[in-house]
């Protein structure tokens, strides 16, 4: 049977989490990264940490299905000190932990704020999932959906809530386009048709500054966040 979670939990987590902590100070901005398996979510998180860690106080929560693989990669790469990286093991359904029962992720986010805060930004990486996976607004303020050109140039056309509604769509691994016969201009047109004015960033994370379109977008969201009411 197909379980429609929106039907099952019609009223849950459709609101945004309060912008302040109990002591009245502004909490960290929370940005979620979701998308199919292997598209470059962890690579994006790693590159964002390297690009932003000197100017911002950062932390990361990773979600893996059965392991702590992504957190261990970030630790090996030393993108942040170990105490700023927290791993959630989600079990079978990665999307459940970011959308329906977000308690383990909320706990991880709040623990990070308590132990290494005050933080400016927390990145929450979802386990690799499918085109329907989206984050609860009770967990993150903005979501980035990461797809890649190796998955085929028909993915933007196929749509789904990640592609159509994410605050930023990242189309990664553009360096592979010539090898997989993908037309980037066509992908850009299809993404625009699905998303209207919502932004799309093409990235090649193996190249120097390859994450720049994403880090610029994150900086802009953070500027709005800190300018808003505390
Ligand atoms: N050629 C190329 N490879 C990339 C790029 N970005 C990431 N990769 C590689 O793609 C593979 C998967 O990247 P990850 O960042 O682990 O992908 P992920 O989305 O976090 O994967 P899961 O968490 O397992 O769903 C790794 O081998 C990366 O080195 C890119 O821009 N170009
Ligand atoms: Mg990953």
* Name given to the CATH homologous superfamily: P-loop containing nucleotide triphosphate hydrolases
First-to-last CA distance: 44 Å
Could you name the ranges where pLDDT drops below 50 across 5 or more consecutive residues? Answer: 1-13
- CATH structural fold name: Rossmann fold
Compute the number of structural domains.
Answer: 1
Helix content: 25-40%
Specify the number of helices: 10
CATH class, named Alpha Beta
Strand content: 15-25%
Label the structural class: alpha/beta
Shape: globular
Q: What does the model show?
A:
This protein has 230 residues and is α/β, with parallel strands linked by helices. It has one domain (26-225): P-loop containing nucleotide triphosphate hydrolases (Rossmann fold, 3-Layer(aba) Sandwich), CATH 3.40.50. Helix content is 37%, strand content 17%. It contains ten helices and seven strands. The chain has helices at 5-8, 41-52, 69-76, 94-99, 103-116, 155-158, 161-165, 177-180, 184-195, 212-227, and strands spanning 29-34, 58-64, 85-89, 121-125, 142-148, 168-172, 200-202. It is globular, with a radius of gyration of 17 Å. The N and C termini lie far apart (44 Å). The model is unreliable at 1-13 (pLDDT under 50). Magnesium ion is lined by residues 41-42, 70, 125. Residues 37-43, 70, 128, 172-173, 175-176, 204-206 line the site of guanosine-5'-triphosphate.
Short description:
This protein has 230 residues and is an alpha/beta fold. It is built from 10 helices and 7 strands.
